[in-house]
Amino acid sequence: MGHAGGRSRHTVVTSFNLDIYRRYGYRFVDSFRQRFHSVVGFDTKWAADLVIYVEPDVAGWSDLHDISIIPYEYASGLLQYESAVRNFPALCGRFGDRYDIQHDATQARGLFIACDAMERFGGKVWWFDADVITHAPVTAAWLDSLLPDTALCCYLGRDGWSYSETGIVGYNAEHPKAGDL
User: Fold this and answer.
1) Which residues are within 8 A (CB) of 174 and not within 5 positions of it... i.e. 6 or more apart?
2) What is the pTM of this model?
């Protein structure tokens, strides 16, 4: 069920800088290492590959030796987009001394990164915010149940909230409409 070169059918992507990694990103990485596994015969394999898109200050860290690291600038259009919206505080969720994530256009970075990963790796790509902590085993079968082969994408809905949860979003690069993203 893997891809050429031994890659998993699932790829989890996230992004962070040095400050985010030190504050909470390391907990995301630790929980991934502990919970994303599948047992195939007598072998334990990752249920998904983890790829972290980073600002230059994170690349090369020795504690991320088992994780693929990709610089932000490799995600097509991401740096140009973020540079354009940074000139407008309201587009970055800043209103005086107040911050509102619901109005922060830089949060679209996850979509740029997911699209890059879909082209780069194929299969099913999962955007996980860097503050996501998994508390139970995550298997490839469970990921497939959330994003079946017939679906283009999925997200976690939240009952009673006016906004859907976008901290975990799945994209199926093998879906016939994937090229429309």
Assistant:
1) 122, 123, 124, 149
2) 0.81
